[in-house]
């Protein structure tokens, strides 16, 4: 029975009683007034008038009893019809709820995921789908979710999302998270949402997808890349070292020296690629920050320009840096970021042109802006270029090289420094990458907004 039915019945009962009282009051008033008036017109003898009034009283009782019986029978019949209609509506609503629940149950049972519903306050399980019972057992009725789904836990899980699912006594936004189940030692990606149960209370609906295989593949991939990268660095270091030694040997013929130079350059590229693999893995697994210091930004930009390997003679790199501007962070990592952006600017500017680097202090942050006149980036690629292993489709990938890790590593480094990288681009006209870093409190006294240092190549 729905919560509204008792209230509807009370209203019907009160309305019926009020109508009966109103009907009786009106009828009694009219009977007394008109009957006394009529008797006074026709009977003047007091004894006869008294006898007539007595007969009139008994007649009044009989008539009112008959009328009340008929009226109450009518009202009760209407009330019964109304209650039968309410019961039919209630039965239909219950049937609809059962049918919808049956459909949802069929849907959830067909899913290859754990689906359950638990009370937000008592943690008691209210529903568990078939897939979950295959892993954790059929006997779940009356159990708490952490008793049924976990092992060796006697109180709500420390990572429970219940407090985050409700916002001002209303259902909040869904929450997605991952955890390692202590009962079957498998990884699950969970989607939690507070919903209204059939009795009106808020409950937690959780859908947990088994992602153990994905986790294992990610771990295997990371271990393989790390192992291969470390193992390849040793021979590459030897190749680069001996190639550099042979390049400086005056007895080597010029033609051989050029070949050795190619070996050295390609070995350095491969070493740089391996270092980026290692950087990407390190930034993903190790979020600790070390070797932070205050240092001049001008020196960093000059070092980044000097380390730009893809810069050719037809590239004109111009650096403008606000004199005395300092940043706080890891000098080597931030140099790597600017060098990567300059390499990209040169690599994707095959016709050459001006590449400007402008560093200045803004009201809330420090800006390093790198602008080129290259091929540009389509609008739908502006976010994708920061994803691992994503490369911009230029029609000839061999001419640009790289594996698509540079911008990913650069964004992670800037994010760990509390900043962000923004990009604007017009296809065919060039791109502008802007690195925004927090202003170091201790370095604000060294900033001079009036003096500009300009270096051109």
Structural commentary:
With 457 residues, the protein is α+β, with helices and mostly antiparallel strands. It has four domains: 4-106; 112-210, Beta-Lactamase; 219-285, Orthogonal Bundle (Helix Hairpins), CATH 1.10.287; 292-456, Histidine kinase-like ATPase, C-terminal domain (Heat Shock Protein 90). Helix content is 50%, strand content 21%. It has eleven helices and 15 strands. The chain has helices spanning 4-42, 46-110, 130-136, 145-149, 162-165, 212-247, 254-285, 297-306, 331-347, 397-400, 406-416; strands at 114-119, 125-128, 166-167, 170-171, 175-180, 187-196, 202-210, 292-296, 315-322, 326-330, 353-361, 365-371, 420-426, 430-438, 452-456. The strands form four sheets. A six-stranded mixed β-sheet has the order 13-14-12-11-9-15, covered by helices on one side. Strands 2-1-7-6-5 form a five-stranded antiparallel β-sheet. Helix 6 packs antiparallel against helix 7 (254-285), helix 7 crosses helix 11 (406-416) and helix 9 runs antiparallel to helix 11 (406-416). It is elongated, with a radius of gyration of 42 Å.
Overall form? elongated
- Specify the biggest β-sheet: 6 strands, mixed
CATH architecture of the largest domain: 2-Layer Sandwich
Compute the average pLDDT.
81
Strand order of the largest sheet: 13-14-12-11-9-15
What is the C-level CATH assignment of the largest domain?
Alpha Beta
* Unreliable residue runs: 443-457
Fill in the CATH topology of the largest domain: Heat Shock Protein 90
CATH superfamily of the largest domain: Histidine kinase-like ATPase, C-terminal domain
SSE class: alpha+beta
Number of domains: 4
Report the radius of gyration as a whole number of Å: 42 Å
Strand content: 15-25%
The count of strands amounts to: 15
- In sequence order, what are the helices and strands, one letter per element? HHEEHHHEEEEEHHEHEEHEEHHEEE
How many individual helices? 11
Distance between the termini: 84 Å
How much helix is in the residues? 40-55%
């Amino acid at each position: 029975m729905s919560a509204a039915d008792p209230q509807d019945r009370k209203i019907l009962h009160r309305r019926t009683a009020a109508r009966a009282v109103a009907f009786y009051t009106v009828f009694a008033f009219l009977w007394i007034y008109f009957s006394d008036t009529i008797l006074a017109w026709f009977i003047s003898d007091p004894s006869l008038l008294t006898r007539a009034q007595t007969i009139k009283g008994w007649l009044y009782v009989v008539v009112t009893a008959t009328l009340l019986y008929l009226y109450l029978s009518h009202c009760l019949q209407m009330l019964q019809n109304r209650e039968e209609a309410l019961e039919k509506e209630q039965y239909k609503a219950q049937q609809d709820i059962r049918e919808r629940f049956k459909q949802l149950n069929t849907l959830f049972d067909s899913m290859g995921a754990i689906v359950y519903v638990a009370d937000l306050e008592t943690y008691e399980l209210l529903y568990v789908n078939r897939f979950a019972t295959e892993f954790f057992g059929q006997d779940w009725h009356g159990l708490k979710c952490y008793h049924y789904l976990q092992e060796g836990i006697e109180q709500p899980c420390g990572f429970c999302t219940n407090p985050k699912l409700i916002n001002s006594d209303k259902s909040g936004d869904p929450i997605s998270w991952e955890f390692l189940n202590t009962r079957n030692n498998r990884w699950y990606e969970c989607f939690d949402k507070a919903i209204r149960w059939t009795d009106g209370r808020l409950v937690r609906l959780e859908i947990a997808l088994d992602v153990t295989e994905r986790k294992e593949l990610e771990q295997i991939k990371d271990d393989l890349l790390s192992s291969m990268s470390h193992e390849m660095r040793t021979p590459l270091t030897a190749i680069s070292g001996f190639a550099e030694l042979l390049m400086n040997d005056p007895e080597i013929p010029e033609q051989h020296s050029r070949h050795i130079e190619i070996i050295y350059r390609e070995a350095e590229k491969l070493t740089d690629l391996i270092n980026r693999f290692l950087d990407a893995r390190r930034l993903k697994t190790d979020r600790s920050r070390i070797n932070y210091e205050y240092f001049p930004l001008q020196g960093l930009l000059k070092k980044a320009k000097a380390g730009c390997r893809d810069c050719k003679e037809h590239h004109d790199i111009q650096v403008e840096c606000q004199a005395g501007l300092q940043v706080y962070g890891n000098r080597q990592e931030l140099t790597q970021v600017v060098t990567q952006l300059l390499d990209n600017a040169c690599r994707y500017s095959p016709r050459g042109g001006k590449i400007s680097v402008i560093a200045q202090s803004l009201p809330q942050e420090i800006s390093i802006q790198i602008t080129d006149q290259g091929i540009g980036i389509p609008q739908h690629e502006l976010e994708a270029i920061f994803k691992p292993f994503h490369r911009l489709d230029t029609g000839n990938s061999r001419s640009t090289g790289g594996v698509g890790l540079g911008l990913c590593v650069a964004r992670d480094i800037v994010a760990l420094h509390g900043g962000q990288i923004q990009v604007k681009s017009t296809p065919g006209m060039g791109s502008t990458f802007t690195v925004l870093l927090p202003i170091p409190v201790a370095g604000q006294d060294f900033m001079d907004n009036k003096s500009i240092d300009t270096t051109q190549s």
